[in-house]
């Protein structure tokens, strides 16, 4: 337990963290990787380059400072982060390393303002917060390992099929290399893959949504090929598209994530942009398999039909469901796109179109796609009267505050 004095000191640093938080976390990651380059095996270089990881950590530190006397308040956020940590095989021994460099970054950025008293209080608070993460993640590791077909960290899988879904998205079908059974996951969850790339010193990991229904004898991930192959953004996706084929193996962790389809029979609306369609393929496959009478609206936004994946699969699924609507919104549709019977709008999804075409009473609304798409859809849904508790969304990458961050 923290003393009241420590709590008061931590809370007194909130204004400083609001101003300097990202500078602190930027210095933290720089120093961490210089001292422990082996940790580059864990962190996503793309998110580092874009600054999203630094901002996400700054937001977490700020939240911890604000609620240091009511840590239960931020447990939902801690659990969401812990899902990603478990999927990346973060271990208890990593936390003291992080603590050392976080305190060092606070001292580096704030200088004399970071008194011994402040550093001491944050050291004490970090120990308490880290233990919360460690305990939650320990339970998650046990759940992942003890479920039928489960395992704890990374496991070797074989690519059994590789299917081009669009001009930019390819699916990889994966089975355990040892022939063991697969665990049942929740529709919407993701896995982490880890691969070595020739010529690169460190391994790379990326998290991809599972895009097929649970209960099948394989996992499926559907990967968008980034346009710049030699950038952090394109390193893994281009390696998978170009060089990983049937019979090759990759390592993956057990399914994780809390952006999952509820198991009620109430209506559901799925709003996806670009490759954000992938978790919804798991969800709609699951609905078609287990609850074909559930009222479902599936709306997908893309630049054109050539870039949209799963058009044939979605049409086939719709024919097995009793109450489903498919709507495609294309920014630059071709004449062929406009002839598709599911083509609904040229341009972008706006509030008026949503209210007319995808507003279902008592529905839960799920959103996945690029950050601007998430921000726009949340705003549109609120404009047409959808309650915040009915809106669920998934980030590809570290979480952001959609109301304040560009």
Structure report:
With 406 residues, the protein is an alpha/beta fold. The protein has three domains: 4-146, Orthogonal Bundle (Globin-like), CATH 1.10.490; 154-253, Elongation Factor Tu (Ef-tu), domain 3, CATH 2.40.30; 268-394, Rossmann fold. 42% of the residues lie in helices and 18% in strands. Strands 4-3-6-1-2-5 form a six-stranded antiparallel sheet. A six-stranded parallel sheet has the order 10-9-8-7-11-12, with helices on both faces. β11 (364-368), α13 and β12 (391-394) form a beta-alpha-beta unit. α1 (4-12) packs across α7, α2 crosses α4 and α6 (94-110) runs antiparallel to α7 (116-146). It is globular, with a radius of gyration of 22 Å.
